């Protein structure tokens, strides 16, 4: 477990900023304590200083997970967000998409969100903007990438994809073994 | 000779080959080769038949040798075959020919014909013969009708031994014979009807053999009315659909539902395929859209949530839906609910009350599902309870009936009698509907789930839902509490009445019936009132239903008790606690009755209690003892109604009161008093507890709170007022005791009075003690303690309550207010009581909320609201403290040992931030704490802009103000001179040239000019340079701070202009050109005119004036304004006058020229205008 290098930090922040923009600052600079990102097994964990200290008591090879896993670095050096980060992304998300109840299941099974399942969307969403997907009951379901701008969404064919699926809470079950 | 089949030949084999091959075994006579070709003409099978004369031995030999032998790429297969058809035909023919030749058969026939013909019969007709005559020579032939000759037939009939022959003589049956038509009109085949004329309709087409093209079979769809609510929950839909798919469309349960589900799925998919309408549904939300996530846990959010609810599980369903459907649920389970102490109560209450009857109806219909199972469940408890009750008025009512009764009660609670009626009817309908629904398998299944949950003892949700509507419970609770206190004080150990009524009484609205006398009175009243109420169907129903309602209460009480124990600060707990007290009170109350009142009355009391527990009493009463309880219930109902608002009931009760029993009279009195709002009158005859209750009821809205507060010591505000009221009550009671004319039983009355007095005294003491306690607590606490409690109380939903509470807090509110509150009715009542009940806990100082940790706890608690599950106990506080300590220790350690680590972390954080900024490409402002950015974004209303000297930001304005003041002059000057530069330059320039010509180079003015301007910029710059720098700085500051100000801009511009002005000033000064005019806002025209007309003179004038003006200007430099004896005033006019007289000619010339000019210009202007047009 080690702190992230500048490069890694930059990569990760770039990814995070797609979803929460400058609100990353709120994650880094928290009034309620010191929180930090740590890299372990190519995964980035977000934890409080306290947990960080506790984790030092665990051998590196025995440490499975600590804090909240935000995602992992792929072999190609890109950062991939995990669904476990949803709890931190959802409240700060700049752009949100609400899916209709019928589409919830589909989304939770890993499918993209079609126009027909789009219940609500934040205005001024740009294409390829990271969005957090909510159910109509305002339960965050996951996140994805807007395939179209808000304006385009209005005129879209109902069967066209509006939000690309990236992660959903269904992964807690589907990828139980790989999510840490 | 044998015919053999030979199969498995190769395609290349010829007849000769076969012949040679089989020639060995015999002589081959005929060979037939057949080849089968497939579609492409490729042979795939070849076989042959041969006729061969062969002996058996040879055949066997042949078979053994050749059969299944391989020959030319094929395996021979030899079998004996049938003879060929041709041969067989030949054989047959031969055989036939060989048979004996056929005999001629025609002989006899022809003979007959011949003989007949000879007898004169032609073609079987004998002309001119009488029917019945025999044909001569032919015995067997007879002439019959139409002269036809027919044979006589001998028929044999019968069988076996019975056979007999019958002779049929055609002549005797001539009527059977018809005339043979000579020419039967024959229609040729072509003339037969081959075509049927017909239209284009389907039938004719089909008749013609034309059938419409077959259409693919479509499964029939059964249209069931769409239940919007049913499938509100899409997840349910999906579930259903998945189920359907699993069963491959074989739905064992409810086909209809399955179909509906399918349809919905269809529609959904279609919708997915694109309804235009759906696009409209797309909702675009602003970036600041508020997400209210995860609120559903708290339930009772409202219908909106239900719409969007995605929760799949039955639990969620149950949790979400119960509140609206609560009406039905109320029925059987109300008592239970009371025990369970629903959170929902509060939440749903306001809604419910506000709802019109129509809305209620809708709710009911919507919640059919839920209601069904609930109804079932409710029945169960009813039945179980019925076993308990001895009297068991329990006319095992139908479920529907029970439901109705429940509903009625609810309606009473709501105090909208009209609505009640409607509701009832609606419910009846619903009941029918329910039965229908039960038939539907699917719904049942759905319901079953819910039902299971409920039956599993998760009745909490149901209870909650039920609770939501019971307004009365709360009301009664407050009274109950009072009673309980009284009872406790007076009779500490009271045996609970039989039948566990006390336990069941969670909500008992002991308002009037709690005290024995009151109960009796109420009973009597009820009797009197019975007739009226009987008239009202609702009430009847209620009575019936009361049984059911009562029964469940039992269980509820136990649960209530349990909850009580668990209960704490939150409302629920308070409510629950109240019921306990109520039960106690109920126990206490019965005592006096026992002493003085006959057992029946006690029972009645019980009934009353029970009914009260149920909540409303009107209806519930009947359950225990059918007749009296009903009356009691009714009485209660009357009371309640009176309290709520309607005086009708009470008045009616009075009218009908039979004079028989004192109790009745009491009841009547009570009722009357209540109606009149005179608490005193009611109190007269009623024992103290009852009086209090009555007060609560009558004065209810206003006074109840006070009373409750006083009695319970819980309300700080009401303490003083309550005590006063109590005193009043006591007095009144005493008075009543003094004037015991009304009571029939003097002894009883006396006893009652004694008890009353005792109770009053005790209560008084209590109240005083409490007051002192409260005061002490308040003194120490101030408002801090109260705030949390209040927060908990009012946060939920009931603003009205809070208002009421506030009103009650001011005990001395005018009577009018009270009346108003009365109108408000039961709601207020409940609320107040609740508050009162809850007040005990609420206003106690909670140790866990003290101190720093306590503050934290408070914050957390406020975050959770009144949710019982998250109540913050002392435990949490401790833990917090511990945590704090730990943290502190940890921090210390860190400080000591891990300071380095912290530094590292800090560095890391900074690094992160810097990287973040680089990522975000943020401007440095963001770095500096977002404030500037926020400023940049905030919109400032210009009009709302006020100068606040105390604010640092406004320092800018201050500066500006000074600048403005400084520049006041300059700006003014600038304005005056605004247009000067251009005009003056021109004129000035012209003049200058002429001057040059006239004066020979204008030597005196030129150098002065050149010198002055050169100088001017110098000192100007010197002056202005620092200013400019200042300005720049300021502007920089402003830009960085991005402060909005009008002044700055002005100042900037003004400064610039000032600079310009001063630069110009110099030359002007040097030339002294009409400085006076321009300063006094002279016109360009004047200048022009002067320039045109007075050029020459000016030159002269200027030349003459130069020295004087220079001096003047020099003197004027300091003074801008004119002053008396100002040289500008004295000399200025001169410029208007001609110093030299023009000659006549010159003047005329000038004039003409001017006129010409004018005309020219006029023409030009006209042309322009016309052109434009």
From TrEMBL, chain A:
Residues 95-170 form the PUA domain. PROSITE patterns: PUA. Required for proper 34S pre-rRNA processing and 60S ribosome subunit assembly. The lineage of its organism: Eukaryota, Metazoa, Chordata, Craniata, Vertebrata. It holds the Pfam family UPF0113. The keyword Transferase does not apply. SMART domains: PUA. Interacts with pre-ribosome complex. InterPro entries: NIP7_N, Nip7_N_euk, PUA, PUA-like_sf, PUA_sf, Ribosomal_synth_fac_NIP7, UPF0113_PUA. GO terms for biological process: ribosome assembly. GO terms for molecular function: RNA binding. GO terms for cellular component: nucleolus. Keywords: Nucleus, Ribosome biogenesis, RNA-binding. This is 60S ribosome subunit biogenesis protein NIP7 homolog. It comes from the Eukaryota. It is found in: Nucleus, Nucleolus. Belongs to the NIP7 family.
């Amino acid at each position: 477990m080690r702190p992230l290098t500048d490069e890694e930090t930059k990569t990760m922040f770039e990814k995070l900023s797609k979803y929460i923009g400058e609100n990353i600052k709120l994650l880094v600079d928290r009034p309620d304590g010191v929180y930090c990102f740590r890299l372990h097994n190519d995964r980035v964990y977000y934890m409080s200083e306290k947990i960080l200290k506790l984790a030092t008591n665990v051998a590196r090879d025995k440490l499975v997970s600590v804090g909240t896993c935000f995602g992992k670095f792929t072999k190609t050096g890109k950062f991939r967000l995990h669904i476990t980060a949803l709890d931190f992304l959802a409240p700060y998300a700049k752009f949100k998409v609400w899916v209709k109840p019928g589409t919830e299941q589909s989304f939770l099974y890993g499918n993209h969100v079609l126009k027909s399942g789009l219940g609500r969307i934040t205005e001024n969403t740009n294409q390829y903007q990271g969005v957090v997907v909510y159910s109509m009951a305002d339960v965050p379901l996951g996140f994805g990438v807007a395939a179209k701008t808000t304006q385009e969404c209005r005129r879209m064919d109902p069967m066209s994809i509006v939000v690309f699926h990236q992660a959903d809470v269904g992964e807690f079950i589907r990828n139980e073994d790989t999510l840490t | 000779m044998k015919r053999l089949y030979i199969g498995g030949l190769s395609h290349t084999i010829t007849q000769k080959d076969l012949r040679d091959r089989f020639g060995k075994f015999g002589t081959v006579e005929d060979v037939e080769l057949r080849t089968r070709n497939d579609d492409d003409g490729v042979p795939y099978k070849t076989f042959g038949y041969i006729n061969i004369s062969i002996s058996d031995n040879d055949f066997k030999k042949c078979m053994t040798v050749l059969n299944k032998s391989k020959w030319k790429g094929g395996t021979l297969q030899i079998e004996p075959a049938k003879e060929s058809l041709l041969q067989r035909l030949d054989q047959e023919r031969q055989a036939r020919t060989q048979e004996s030749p056929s005999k001629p058969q025609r002989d006899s026939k022809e003979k007959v014909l011949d003989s007949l013909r000879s007898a004169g019969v032609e073609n079987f007709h004998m002309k001119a013969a009488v029917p019945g005559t025999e044909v001569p020579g032919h015995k067997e032939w007879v002439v019959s009708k139409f002269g036809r000759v027919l044979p006589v037939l001998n028929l044999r009939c019968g069988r076996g031994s019975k056979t007999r022959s019958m002779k049929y003589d055609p002549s005797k049956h001539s009527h059977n014979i018809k005339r043979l038509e000579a020419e039967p009109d024959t229609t040729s085949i072509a003339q037969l009807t081959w075509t049927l004329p017909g239209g284009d309709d389907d039938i004719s087409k089909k008749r013609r053999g034309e059938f419409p093209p077959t259409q693919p079979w479509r499964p029939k769809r059964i249209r069931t009315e769409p239940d919007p609510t049913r499938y509100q929950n899409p997840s349910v839909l999906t579930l259903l659909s998945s189920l359907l798919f699993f069963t491959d469309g074989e739905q064992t349960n409810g086909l209809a539902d399955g179909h509906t589900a399918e349809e919905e799925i269809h529609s959904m998919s279609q919708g997915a395929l694109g309804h235009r309408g759906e696009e409209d549904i797309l909702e675009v939300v602003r970036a600041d859209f508020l997400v209210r996530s995860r609120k559903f846990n708290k339930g009772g959010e409202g219908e909106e949530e239900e719409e969007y609810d995605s929760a799949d599980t039955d639990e969620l369903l149950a949790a979400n839906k119960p509140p609206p459907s609560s009406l039905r649920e109320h029925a059987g389970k109300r008592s239970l609910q009371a025990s369970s102490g629903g959170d929902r109560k509060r939440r749903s209450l306001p809604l419910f009350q506000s709802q019109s009857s129509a809305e209620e109806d809708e709710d009911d219909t919507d919640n059919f599902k839920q209601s069904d199972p609930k109804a079932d469940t409710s029945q169960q408890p009813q039945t179980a309870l019925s076993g308990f009750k001895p009297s068991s008025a329990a006319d095992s009512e139908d479920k529907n009936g029970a439901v109705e009764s429940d509903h009625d009660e609810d309606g009473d609670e709501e105090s909208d009698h009209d609505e009640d009626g409607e509701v009832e009817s609606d419910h009846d309908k619903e009941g029918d509907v329910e039965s229908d629904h039960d038939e539907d398998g699917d719904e049942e299944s759905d319901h079953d789930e819910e039902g299971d949950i409920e039956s599993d003892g998760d009745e909490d949700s149901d209870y909650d839902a039920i609770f939501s509507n019971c307004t009365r419970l709360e009301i009664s609770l407050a009274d109950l509490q009072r009673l309980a206190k009284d009872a406790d004080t007076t009779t500490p150990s009271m045996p609970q009445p039989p039948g566990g009524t006390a336990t069941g009484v969670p909500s008992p609205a002991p308002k009037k019936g709690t005290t024995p006398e009151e109960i009796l009175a109420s009973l009597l009243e009820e009797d009197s009132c019975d007739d009226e109420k009987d008239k009202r169907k609702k009430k009847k129903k209620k009575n019936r239903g009361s049984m059911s309602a009562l029964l469940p209460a039992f269980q509820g009480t136990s649960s209530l008790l349990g909850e009580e124990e668990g209960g704490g600060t939150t409302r629920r707990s308070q409510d629950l606690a109240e019921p306990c007290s109520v039960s106690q009170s109920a126990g206490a109350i019965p005592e006096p009755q026992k002493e003085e009142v006959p057992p029946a009355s006690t029972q009645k009391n019980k009934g009353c209690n029970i009914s009260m527990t149920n909540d409303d009493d009107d209806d519930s009463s009947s359950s225990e003892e059918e007749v009296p309880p009903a009356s009691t219930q009714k009485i209660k109902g009357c009371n309640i109604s009176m309290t709520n608002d309607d005086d009708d009931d009470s008045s009616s009760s009075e009218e009908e009161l039979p004079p028989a029993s004192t109790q009745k009279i009491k009841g009547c009195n009570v009722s009357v008093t209540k109606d009149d709002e005179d608490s005193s009158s009611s109190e007269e005859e009623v024992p103290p507890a009852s009086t209090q209750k009555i007060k609560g009821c009558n004065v209810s809205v206003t006074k109840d709170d006070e009373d409750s507060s006083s009695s319970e010591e819980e309300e700080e505000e009401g303490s003083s007022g309550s005590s006063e009221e109590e005193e009043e009550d006591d007095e009144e009671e005493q008075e009543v005791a003094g004037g015991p004319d009304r009571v029939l039983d003097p002894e009883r009355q006396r006893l009652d009075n004694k008890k009353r007095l005792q109770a009053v005294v005790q209560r008084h003491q209590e109240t005083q003690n409490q007051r002192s306690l409260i005061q002490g607590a308040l003194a120490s606490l101030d408002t801090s303690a109260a705030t949390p409690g209040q927060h908990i109380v009012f946060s939920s939903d009931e603003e009205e309550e809070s208002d009421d509470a506030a009103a009650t807090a001011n005990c001395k509110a005018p009577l009018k207010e009270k009346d108003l509150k009365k109108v408000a009715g039961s709601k207020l009542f409940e609320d107040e009581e609740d508050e009162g009940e809850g007040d005990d806990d609420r206003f106690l100082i909670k140790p866990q909320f003290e101190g720093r940790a306590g503050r934290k706890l408070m914050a957390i608690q406020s975050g959770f609201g009144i949710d019982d599950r998250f109540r913050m106990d002392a435990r949490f506080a401790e833990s917090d403290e511990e945590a704090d300590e730990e943290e502190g220790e940890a921090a210390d350690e860190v400080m000591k040992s891990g300071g380095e680590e912290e530094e590292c972390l800090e560095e890391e954080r900074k690094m992160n931030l810097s990287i973040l900024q680089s990522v975000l490409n943020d401007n440095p402002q963001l770095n500096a704490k977002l404030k500037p950015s926020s400023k940049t974004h905030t919109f400032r209303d210009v009009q709302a802009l006020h100068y606040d000297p105390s604010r640092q930001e406004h320092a800018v304005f201050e500066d500006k103000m000074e600048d403005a003041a400084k520049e006041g002059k300059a700006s003014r000057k600038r304005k005056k001179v605004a247009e000067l530069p251009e005009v003056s330059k021109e004129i000035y320039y012209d003049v200058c040239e002429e001057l040059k010509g006239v004066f020979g180079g204008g030597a005196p003015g030129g150098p002065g000019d050149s010198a002055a301007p050169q100088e001017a910029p110098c000192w100007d710059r010197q002056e202005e340079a620092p200013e400019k720098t200042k300005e720049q700085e300021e502007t920089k500051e402003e830009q960085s701070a991005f402060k909005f100000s009008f002044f700055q801009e002005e100042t900037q511009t003004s400064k610039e202009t000032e600079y310009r002005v001063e630069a110009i000033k110099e030359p002007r000064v040097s030339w002294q050109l009409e400085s006076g005019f321009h300063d006094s806002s002279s016109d360009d025209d004047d200048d022009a005119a002067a320039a045109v007309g007075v050029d020459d003179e000016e030159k002269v004038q200027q030349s003459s004036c130069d020295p004087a003006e220079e001096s003047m200007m020099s003197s004027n430099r300091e003074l801008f304004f004119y002053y008396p004896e100002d040289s500008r005033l004295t000399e200025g006019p001169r410029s208007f006058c001609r110093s030299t007289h023009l000659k006549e000619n010159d003047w005329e010339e000038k004039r003409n020229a001017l006129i010409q000019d004018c005309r020219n210009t006029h023409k030009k202007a006209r042309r322009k205008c016309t052109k434009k047009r």
